[in-house]
Every structure is written in C-alpha cells, then in structure tokens.
Inverse folding.
C-alpha cells in the first residue's frame, strides 16, 4: 500500500479509536495502539510496517520527547527531591528495575535485553499520571505532588540509563558493560554539564525578560509568529545533535533541550502559541501515527511463552504499587492516599513505549519482547484509572492547613480572642 494511503488510514483509525477511549475515560494512546494492531499483521493485515513509516515514527519520537521535556522544569526536578519525594522515587524505580533484571536473567536473556525490560518496568508516565489526576480533580492533593515528583525522577533516570545502555554492545558480559558504562558515564556528565551551563546562561540572558521579549517581537515582525516554533525546534535539534555526537540517542538531547524551554523565558501569549503549535504537531498528528505504527509492529505469534508474559505483567504492576504504598506510608500519607499513590505510579504509557521502540530499532530486544512491552504499557495504563477510582473518593483534594491552636485563657474573667493564622 502507498505511503500516503497508509498514513491516511492510520491517522483516521487512530483518531477515531483514540476519541472512543477518551470518551470512556481512558488514555487516547490505547485506542491509537489498537488502531495499529487492527490494521497490521496481527489484525486485518491491511498495512505493513515500512521504512518510510519508521522515519515518520522517528520524527514523532522527537516531538513527543520535546513535549515531555517542556512539561518539566529544572526547578521541578530539584523540588521533587525534597521531603520524602526522593525516597519514594528511588523505591519506585529500583524495585521494578531489580525485578525486571531478575526476570530477564531467569528467562535466559542477555544482560542488555534484561536491562531494557527492567527500564521499561521502572518508568512512570508523567503525562498519563497528570491527566488521570486532573480527571479526578486531585491535582492539588498530596498524592499528585508525590506522583509528579516520582514520575519526573523515574523518567529522567530511565532516559539517562538508556543513554548508557545504547553504548553497550548487544551481547556483552559484565566486564564490557562496566568499562563502557564508565566511558559513557563521563560523556553523560559532559552532556549534563553543557545542559546546566546553558540553563544558567539562558537565565542570565533572560534577566528581567526585556531582552527575550525584544528578540521574540523582532522575530515575529520579520518572519511571522510561527518563526518562534522554528527557532525552538532548531534549539532542541542542537542538543539532539550534541547527544548523537557523544554516542547517545538523539532523544536524550531532545529531552534536555525541551527541559530548558521554560515559560519564564517567553512572553505569556508567545509561550501559549508555541505550546499550541507543538501540541498540534505532536498530539494532533505525529503521536497518533507513532502509537499506531507501534501497533503495526505488535506481533502475537512472536510473543514469548505466556508464563513469561504473565510474570512480567504481574511484576510490573506489583512492584510499582508496593513501593508507592510503602513510600507513601513512610511519608505520612493515609492508607487510601498511599494506595492511590501506588496505583498512579503504575501507569506507564508514552515514555515506556518510546524506550521500547528505540531498543527494538537498535536491535537490543526481539519482536517478541517488544510486543510484551507494548502489552505491558497498554495493560498498566488501562488499569491505572480503574484501580485509582476505588480510593479517589477518600483522598482529600488538598492538604488541609494545620489546626489553629486555642488561645490561652487569661486570669481575668474575659477570654482573649483566638489568634487568626
């Protein structure tokens, strides 16, 4: 089938099924993946995955990761580590990571393949979590605060480890992995150093905002309002290129490039226009095509033994809910709040599927394991709002203020008025 005909069918099917899932209060990516499965070899076999579609999927990954980076800030990552957020994030990342490695080794996988499985099990999808919490009206709750903190740190750690992993030969022993990790770690530190230096440089340049405002107005007058979108894409492409030159995947640089684009550096209406343009390109066109192409690559016949699929699903769910529960209780959350936190950390979705696609593209995993990871992403994303619904009614919308202490009673017959806080 011709490329444009395939694209037309994929977009129409993905948008329709995505909208159906949205109406059912489920993430749209489930319907978009289902569209690819139905149209692909595992369904009606109307469309085959091809190199042109792979190129479009690669462009989609760039914009998806850019959008994800723009949803975060350096200050958010730093504040996420405060209080008990770092402890919960570490537990929710390390427990599924270790479980994934144990499952991979028990199934006879090489180290790199087991590591991909472990990484995908450790991710919590920030956009999915935020949208579910928003749907329940709990974005101001303590559960939301800890969920966002854990998702920020989990996704950041997963991308950093992915950058190191892609430097390792596909079939490598622990000695090779250790040496490559040391070299890759040094290069990664160099990349992070460049990012941090750029962050401080941009903030110094922005100052009180007059310089950036003047630059944006000049750019808009000369080239039109859409030119800002082009400048931002070029800026992020620069970091993607630096990432590739250092031997990492371009997605690492794209993520950090998006992270540098903060709202404070733009005039309010310019930033809103930029967000709208990027979301139109990403969520409106490229993201549905990307998730539909993942569905095309999904292969039931190549799935590993069903016991392995069942163990992966059970471990991926259990070892996200458990650390959320334990960490939440240690942080002083009530039992419903701690359980809700565990349920929210279970949702994977976007970033897990991006990592799985990159690993398949680089030959680190088989089509069977890729299909297992896609199934894991769908199942965990699907059950997250269903499980969270059981405890959502018992979660306070916001942290209640501390109760005012009663005013002391004077010796005189009159009573001092209570102190207002």
């Amino acid at each position: 089938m011709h490329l444009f005909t395939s694209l037309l069918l994929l977009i129409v099917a993905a948008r329709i099924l995505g909208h159906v899932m949205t109406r059912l209060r489920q993430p749209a990516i489930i319907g978009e993946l289902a569209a690819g499965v139905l149209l692909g070899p595992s369904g009606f076999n109307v469309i085959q995955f091809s190199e042109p579609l792979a190129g479009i999927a690669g462009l989609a990954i760039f914009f998806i990761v850019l959008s994800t980076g723009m949803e975060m800030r350096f200050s958010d990552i730093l504040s996420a580590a405060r209080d008990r957020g770092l402890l919960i994030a570490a537990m929710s990342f390390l427990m599924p990571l270790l479980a994934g490695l144990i499952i991979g080794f028990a199934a006879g996988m090489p180290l790199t393949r087991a590591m991909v499985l472990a990484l995908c099990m450790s991710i919590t999808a920030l956009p999915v979590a935020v949208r579910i919490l928003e749907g329940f009206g709990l974005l101001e709750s303590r559960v939301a605060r800890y969920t966002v903190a854990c998702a920020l740190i989990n996704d950041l750690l997963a991308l950093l480890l992915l950058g190191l992993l892609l430097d390792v030969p596909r079939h490598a022993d622990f000695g090779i992995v250790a040496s490559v990790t040391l070299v890759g770690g040094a290069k990664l530190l160099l990349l992070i150093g460049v990012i941090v230096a750029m962050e401080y440089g941009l903030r110094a340049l922005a100052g009180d905002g007059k310089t950036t405002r003047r630059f944006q107005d000049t750019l808009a007058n000369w080239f039109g309002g859409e030119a800002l979108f082009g400048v931002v894409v070029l800026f992020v492409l620069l970091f993607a290129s630096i990432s590739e030159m250092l031997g990492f995947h371009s997605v690492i640089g794209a993520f950090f490039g998006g992270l540098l684009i903060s709202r404070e550096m733009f005039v309010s209406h310019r930033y809103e226009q930029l967000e709208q343009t990027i979301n139109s390109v990403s969520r409106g066109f490229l993201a549905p095509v990307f998730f539909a192409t993942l569905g095309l690559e999904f292969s039931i016949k190549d799935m590993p033994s069903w016991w392995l699929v069942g163990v992966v699903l059970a471990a991926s769910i259990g070892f996200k809910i458990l650390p959320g529960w334990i960490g939440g209780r240690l942080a002083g959350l009530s039992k419903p709040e701690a359980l809700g936190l565990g349920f929210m950390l279970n949702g994977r979705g976007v970033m897990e599927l991006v990592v799985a696609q990159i690993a398949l593209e680089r030959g680190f995993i088989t089509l069977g394991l890729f299909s297992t990871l896609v199934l894991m992403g769908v199942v965990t994303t699907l059950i997250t709002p269903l499980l969270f619904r059981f405890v959502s009614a018992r979660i306070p919308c916001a942290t209640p203020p501390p109760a005012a202490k009663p005013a002391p009673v004077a010796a005189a017959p009159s009573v001092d008025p209570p102190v207002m806080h």
About this structure: The chain has 17 helices and no strands. The mean pLDDT is 83. The CA atoms of residues 14 and 32 lie 4 Å apart. Residues 3-392 form a domain with the Na+/H+ antiporter like fold fold (CATH 1.20.1530.20).
